[in-house]
Design brief:
By secondary structure, the chain is an alpha/beta fold. It has seven helices and nine strands, in the order βαβαβββαβαβαβααβ. About 30% of the residues lie in helices and about 20% in strands. Helix 1 runs parallel beside helix 6.
């Protein structure tokens, strides 16, 4: 009998640093991570792609990187910007470039797509990524009615303030208890080491510890939740008319 609840645990930012790479692989080998999204622009992306080839059960998607912003003095300010988010032509060129780089590194198309800091929920990135995902026939985070996205496992507030309890084992169990029927993608950001040049730094090690907690797989089993990846997700479970958010 098929499980009513299926869970994809997807690690973002794969390839951003060797420490993040190590955390993602450990969370897959010793924890519950089933998929990862690759940031192809960063120096550690080639190593991440090489690491993923040793993990045949780890689905690999494209984490489109158009920039990063931090909340400061009451407003979001850019830490770096790859493409102006209001220029559809430049966004399209950059997404095309990153998709080509993904193929060069990985040797195949991504199993899914999303974006750094969810910039694709707004135009024009929204239309660009929807078009690419439709062409590749792969799920795009937030825009497939058959895959519910859960972003509750995150250790900061919207303003960037620490929220350590949100990435604890009890918090993860609470999230698991409230999963809706169907397929859910749970976003996460594991990492290790001291090379993490990112606004989300110390939280990554805490996430990794929680994701590798040996009690979690037993709890998942007791709740009759089936762990899935984007690579083994039946087509009928996600395909359908795109939806707005």
């Amino acid at each position: 009998m098929a499980c009513n609840k299926q869970l994809i645990v997807n690690a973002d930012d794969f390839g951003r640093s060797l420490g993040i790479n190590g955390g993602v692989i450990e969370a897959h080998e010793s924890g519950i991570v089933t998929s990862a999204s690759l940031m192809v622009r960063w120096p550690a992306a080639a190593q991440a792609a090489a690491d993923s080839r040793k993990q045949p059960k780890l689905s690999l998607g494209l984490h489109v990187d158009l920039g990063e912003w931090r909340y400061r003095d009451g407003a979001r300010k850019a830490l770096y910007e790859v493409a102006p988010l209001d220029d559809v032509n430049i966004v399209k060129e950059e997404v095309t470039r990153q998709l080509a780089t993904f193929h060069d590194l990985v040797g195949k198309r991504p199993t899914h797509m999303d974006s750094h800091q969810h910039v694709h929920v707004r135009e024009p990135a929204r239309s660009v990524l929807r078009e690419v995902a439709r062409f590749l026939d792969i799920p795009l985070r937030h825009f497939n009615p058959g895959v519910h996205y859960c972003g509750k496992f995150y250790g900061q507030t919207t303003e960037g303030l620490p929220l350590p309890d949100a990435i604890s084992a009890p918090s993860l169990v609470k999230i698991l208890r409230t999963l809706p029927d169907g397929v859910t993608e749970l976003g996460c950001h594991p990492g290790e080491g001291s090379d993490l040049d990112t606004i989300y730094r110390g939280e990554r090690a805490r996430e990794l510890k929680t994701l590798c907690d040996p009690q979690i797989p037993m709890i998942i089993k007791s709740m009759e939740i089936e762990l899935r990846s984007f690579g083994n997700l039946p087509v009928g479970n996600w395909r359908g008319p795109t939806v707005q958010v």
